[in-house]
Structures are given as structure tokens and as C-alpha cells.
Fold this sequence. Notes:
By secondary structure, the protein is mainly β. It has 1 helix and 8 strands.
Amino acid sequence: MSFLDKVKNVAGVGSATIQVDVSQRPSKRGDELVALVRVIPGKTAQKMNFLGVNVEWEGDWNYKNADGGTIEVRNGHGYVLLDRPANCTNATLQPGQTIEVPVRLKIPSDAPLTGEKLKWKLYTRADIAEGADPEWSTSLEIRG
């Protein structure tokens, strides 16, 4: 790889991208999220250290502890999926070769609901060695 190619990779020009097709979007507890994450290589071979795939919420919520008290969480993060698929760890991305990762997840029955102070999202990011890290996210509305 030439020096100019390395500079382009760091700047994100012609580097890997992420596409996600969400075929089933959950709207309430117990619903399933079904999606397909695609890592699409750039114009040159690149090393992908890992791909992170998360379903998370951020904000304020509370829950009952085992003793019957309430635990308050402020400005926190919660995760129902925090994954780094094995086939995407220390992988070499070759031009023309797309890596696909299926995602299937049931929203827990006791998960907090989307509200003014709590937001859900599906988020994915590829850690590319010596390159721009592509990322993708979409909000989820868990209302019931």
C-alpha cells in the first residue's frame, strides 16, 4: 500500500463502510429485532480489528433491587447485546468481499421503555487498523 493510500484510509476515502438492513424492528418488550449487518470493504485491503454490534439504551431509568428498594440510574448505558462476532475479529477486508453478520435479538420483558429521558438504538462500528472506523446506528422505539 502506497503512502497516499494510507493517508486516504486514515481520512476515510475509499475505505470500508457499514450497511444494515433491519427486516424486523421491535416496538415493545418481547418483540424481536432482526437485522443483517454488512461490512463492505474499500478499494484496498484493510485489517478489521473487530466489529462491535450493540443494542443499547441510554439515559435515566430505575428498577427494583432484591430487597424491594429502587435503584436509580442517571445518564447511564444499558445493553441487551454487546457483541464482537468472532468471524470479524482480526479479519482482512478484501475489495469485493462483503462480510455479513446476522442479528436476531428478543427485547427482554423487563427492559426499560423509550421515553423523554431514555433512548434505544442499534449501533455498529468496525475498528479498522490505520483507517477510518465506519459506524452506523438507528433509533429503536420500545413503547410497551
